[in-house]
Design a protein that fits this description.
Largest sheet of chain A: 7 strands, parallel
Helix content of chain A: 25-40%
Radius of gyration of chain A: 23 Å
Strand content of chain A: 15-25%
Mean pLDDT of chain A: 96
Distance between the termini of chain A: 50 Å
Oligomer: homodimer
């Protein structure tokens, strides 16, 4: 009997849990689901005989160490900042550790100890990061093997709403951590284009977008993501002239979102005084330059942002409710928390709504002196608001990697991301069987 | 014999040290100057028999505790983040602690323990914060005593260069911590105007300026500073409709500085890859939106910022050297560090240069139903590049407060700022004798 400890029973967990429980009896696995909410964990067990629910407090050292010591493998869907506590104990008790989060410097610092203790700490093994790395590496290795020299690699991913469930002006609903939706793009985006470093500060990230066309779905905005530069090394393409990783939103989203950025209300760094008694409209007004009031809030915000007050972007912003004379009711809140509360409600996935993942890799490469282009695209739709495309594409790579590890089919140890053939090959193969499949066009 | 331990022998220390040593023999004081550079500390003793220099490492727990235990009072001019270590030991060994830095949440948390141990932790006792608090409180208490009801209090301070030494297009030279000059305004500025909260995000802080006229000196830009809201409580004017604390720069400075902000190169949150081999021009180009190049860097930057490429602001920016095809030579540097290196050289105070402090308080108040205005201004010039106006106005309040404490003339304990009459009254009185004196106009 092998034991799996899953920490965090949030939105991304249902398909992962289903994957494990579907195989638990035959494979002799036992799943423990730990969450701050015992109820949430219990619900996720579906009463399966091989599943147990634990009320889990990651900051309780004794409990954390007890649970990690008695398991064989830990999968963490906790907030990224909490992984380090868990991963440190995993190294100590010699248990493998899987997560869909970016490798933090803290996690990276565990590499040598993990190697010493024969432990794999596999990160970035969800969708983005995750499937993007795996599918990119598969193509990069294939192109290289065919004599291709890579010139350009741009990769965009979006967690969106399926067209059949798209009934709001933004073309967006929330299928993952809503806090990350609000804070997206903060920090400076870094990439390389034609051999020159490119940096985009937060204040311009939603204005410097690319139009991305996806067959069958239409046009999207693509904006640059975090630090693309590091992936030249991870992907083994250190000298590629152009490399960019980005995020997709439906065309028009970014211009409207930039209104929130320009106003300043995506800020999470301070608490608004008396936040619960302020109206949304008051908060917006607080961010307007003084002596600039026409009296009409929408006109004033449009003027600040250089937009048509009757245009599509201002319609989107107005629809959000941010101009309403309604108290927030949220105490001790940052501007970002206020905005999150508003949009979490407005952008909620309805029970029968289907979300949608869109990923597009754009490659340009030289082969026999000739320039070729390859477009590789993935579209996955959710079944409903629980079995979302997001839960599938985050959960299945983790589930498959867990299976491979429990079956001793991965030899890599230390801090890794899934750019290794022994990981991406079987994971992509099994994803295909589950209809998470890329389509390719060569032009 | 009373012992004073001064930590940090930087730019702000010379006048403070002189104040202490001038009185050391008569008052029976012994001064120990601790600095990471023993040489810097030694130089600052001027061979005075009552002064000793210590090579001091604040992170060396044993040394820090040894030195604090054997002194009577500690003055810290260390970087603000290091005060907590020192203040904690001051509480432990029951020694008073003085600094010119803002009260951090960490320092604030020491209040109860400091009270218990009969220790004063006096913060914000330099210029800004410092003299601004003291002079404001003196006027606020006076106006209240005369039956005035405060409607508006705006207070601006600038550490500038004196007109006779102003020979660059910015009208600015650096008289204090150059890092803080580069990072100024980061975070969201908060104040209150006509009873409404006002917030300014970093991206707009240098565009939402007020014109401030100072008699005899001309026009300045005033931009809002950090969190003004907290001072309603500290100043005992919780219900004032308008309160703003701001920073002064010579008129035109802010529009030009905003070019750096808009580009994004005041960012201190990441390290530029290969920073030492990049030219300044390359770094600027990296921040420009792609496919927007005219080929002329100045034209492109002006276009991004909506400025005349031949206007005064672009002249200032060009003068900085940021468009030069010259390698930075600075390894592992953030954009902000690169900009600091450039401007520290360009904005250096020459040996015979005089810096200048300008402070202006603007009060509006009702008395007998009539609205009155009071303008209180302070102008202090430096003697030379060592005995700067900045070193005087930061050092003298600290020196005077130290004297008062050693003479047992301050009864307050716990974490304090100098808004208490027993502190501001004698400090302002002694400052006047030293020609640090406000002039008042009532309109």
């Amino acid at each position: 009997m092998k034991k799996i400890l899953l920490l965090g029973a949030g939105r991304s967990s249902p398909v992962l849990i289903q994957y494990i429980l579907d195989r638990a009896t035959a494979s002799e696995w036992q799943l423990s689901i730990g969450d701050v909410s015992e109820e949430a964990a219990k619900e996720k067990t579906h009463g399966h005989e091989r599943a147990e629910a634990i009320k889990f407090d990651v900051n309780d050292d004794a409990q954390r160490q007890y649970e990690i010591e008695r398991t064989d493998l830990v999968i963490s869907l906790l907030p990224a900042a909490l992984h380090y506590l868990v991963a440190t104990d995993c190294v100590k008790y010699k248990k493998h550790f899987l997560t869909a989060s970016y490798v933090s410097p803290q996690i990276q610092s565990l590499h040598d100890d993990a190697l010493k203790n024969d432990v794999l700490l596999l990160n970035e093994c969800g969708l983005d990061p995750g499937i993007d790395h795996m599918s990119a590496m598969e193509i990069i290795h294939r192109l290289k093997a065919g004599g291709g020299v890579l010139q350009t690699f741009k990769s965009y991913t979006g967690g969106l709403v399926a067209p059949e469930s798209d009934n709001n002006p933004w073309g967006y609903k929330i299928s993952w951590n809503p806090r990350n939706v609000i804070l997206a793009g903060q920090g400076t985006a870094r990439y390389i284009e034609d051999g020159e470093y490119k940096y985009i500060p937060y204040g311009r990230i939603f204005t410097q977008t690319e139009n991305i066309y996806v067959e069958g779905l239409g046009n999207f905005d693509g904006y640059a993501n975090r630090d693309s530069l590091a992936y030249r090394h991870y992907y083994g393409i250190d000298n590629i002239p152009t490399l960019l990783r980005g995020t997709l939103r439906k065309a028009g989203f970014c211009e409207a979102w930039d209104v929130f950025v320009k106003l300043g209300i995506t800020d999470d760094n301070f608490i608004l005084e008396d936040s619960e008694n302020l109206t949304y409209a008051q908060i917006v007004r607080s961010y307007l330059p003084p002596r600039n009031f026409s009296g009409n809030l929408i006109d004033d915000v449009a003027a600040l942002c250089g937009l048509d007050p009757n245009g599509e972007s201002m319609k989107k912003v107005t629809w959000s409710g941010i101009f309403e004379n309604r108290k927030t009711g949220l105490a001790q809140a940052s501007p970002a928390m206020i905005l999150q509360q508003l949009l979490e409600e407005k952008w909620k996935l309805g029970k029968s709504d289907r979300d949608m993942i869109v990923m597009q890799h754009q490659f340009e490469y030289l082969v026999n002196g000739k320039s070729e282009k390859l477009l590789s695209s993935l579209i996955v739709k959710g079944d409903d608001h629980i079995h979302t495309a997001m839960a599938k594409t985050v959960g299945l790579p983790l589930g498959i990697a867990a299976r491979l590890l429990l079956e001793n089919k991965i030899v890599a140890r230390g801090v890794q991301i899934p750019v290794l053939e022994e990981i991406y090959k079987p994971v992509l193969k099994e994803l295909e069987l589950m209809k998470v499949k890329f389509g390719e066009v060569i032009r």
